[in-house]
Specification:
This protein has 248 residues and is mainly β.
Length: 248
């Protein structure tokens, strides 16, 4: 009895675990381009009270802008109902709240092929006509070459074109948890818990990109990519996650 009482007292002294609300999940194939863009241009799209959370060493060194091309293979809501597949392109910034330890990824622009996904839970989605093509060739020696092409044109005059060819290398699998904040309403965020296979095609210690051509233009994109330097390419041939909302 005494041991039980002590145990209950110890539990009472622990902080309460915040409840979370499950809102759905998805499985994708992804390609991410990592850039070092103008800090001045990046600051213009960050909400007030937030700043760039720039890594000064490691594989993310100097990256302040990511463009992720997502081929959504399956998706479902909180009740398990299947949602329509979509092609989306997201733009995000590693960010932290000024004067605090609150940090995560600031999602400030999403181009979606699905009109039903606009403006989306983050309030930053724009419909864009999107064409995507991917080809995988494996030769007799087992070397794998991937050709990937994306073209999108948004309703507000922005456009992105990507053609990339790379040699597939060994993938690393792992799990991650990510807090994704909204650039339109920065108090809002979602929690992503994911598993993925990752191939760093271009990074500090490797470069298997055979050719790449990236163009971005339009009122929202032109200033961001003026003088931006592409420093990383990551392929995730499979990415699966569950999405949660924090306790309100």
């Amino acid at each position: 009895m005494r041991a039980l009482l002590v145990g209950l007292l110890l539990l009472a002294g622990q902080p309460a675990v915040a409840a979370e609300k499950f809102v759905g999940g998805n499985t994708d194939a992804r390609t991410t381009l990592a850039f070092k863009a103008s800090d001045a241009a990046i600051r213009k799209v960050l909400p007030e009270g937030w700043e760039i959370d720039l890594a000064t060493n490691g594989p993310d060194k100097d990256i302040n802008l990511r463009v992720t091309f997502i081929d959504r293979l399956t998706a479902y809501d909180a009740e398990g109902k299947a949602l329509d597949p979509a092609r989306t392109t997201t733009l995000s910034i590693p960010a932290k709240k000024t004067g605090s330890e609150t940090r995560g990824t600031m999602l400030f622009l999403i181009y979606s092929s699905n009109e039903g996904g606009v403006p989306g839970p983050y309030g930053v989605s724009i419909q864009a006509n999107t064409n995507m093509e991917k080809r995988v060739r494996i030769d007799a020696a087992g070397a794998t070459t991937v050709d990937e092409s994306w073209e999108l044109q948004s309703q507000v005059g922005d456009s992105i074109q990507l053609q990339v060819q790379y040699l597939r290398g060994p993938t690393t699998t792992g799990k991650a948890e990510q807090l994704m904040y909204s650039g339109a309403k920065p108090r809002f965020y979602r929690i992503y818990r994911s598993e993925q296979a990752r191939d760093v095609v271009r990074g500090p210690d490797t470069d298997r990109v055979k050719k790449i051509d990236f163009k971005a233009s339009g009122p929202k994109l032109g200033p961001l990519f003026d003088g931006a330097q592409l420093i990383g390419v990551i392929s995730e041939p499979w990415y699966t996650r569950q999405t949660y909302l924090p306790e309100s």
